[in-house]
Amino acid sequence: QVELVESGGGLVQTGGSLRLSCQASGLAFSSYGMGWFRQALGKEREFVGRISWSAGSTYYANSVKGRFTISRDNAKNTVYLQMNSLKPEDTAVYYCAAGRVNSRHSNEYTYWGQGTQVTVSS
Question: How many CB atoms lie within 10 A of CB 86?
Fold first, then answer.
């Protein structure tokens, strides 16, 4: 059974930082591209960034480029989202996803975590 478990969310002030983790189990993690998505209250889920299976390439949404960094440790079956210079508009539930893709499209990912709340206060 495949499971993705996010952690590291919480409440932070504007300008602060958080690091989210996504621990995967039940799949050949190093064979999967990993994506991060977020969904704010009342809005559609949006792409944040993704990393290739080998960590050889990353791609970010314009809204987070230069502030967020995705990395992965295939030995630990874990992908990370380092978020710096956080803004109130970054407030959302953040989800990690796994798929045999390098994509910014949520429907191309096969497995999803349950999400972790990030709240940025002004």
Answer: 22
**pLDDT tens profile 66-117:** 999 999 999 999 999 999 999 999 999 999 999 999 999 999 999 999 999 9
Residue 14: C-alpha distances to residues 40, 81, 85, 90, 119 (Å): 17, 17, 7, 10, 10
34/27 Cα distance (integer angstroms): 12
Question: Would strands 116-121 and 10-13 be described as parallel, antiparallel, or unpaired?
Answer: parallel
Cα distance between residue 76 and residue 31, in whole Å: 13
* Residue 2 near residue 111, CB atoms below 8 Å: yes
Cβ atoms 79, 85 nearer than 8 A: no
User: Which pLDDT score, from 0 to 100, does residue 54 have?
Assistant: 86
Residues 6+ apart with CB under 8 A from 106: 35, 37, 45, 47, 97
CA distance from start to end of the chain: 40
What number is the average pLDDT over the span 19-28?
98
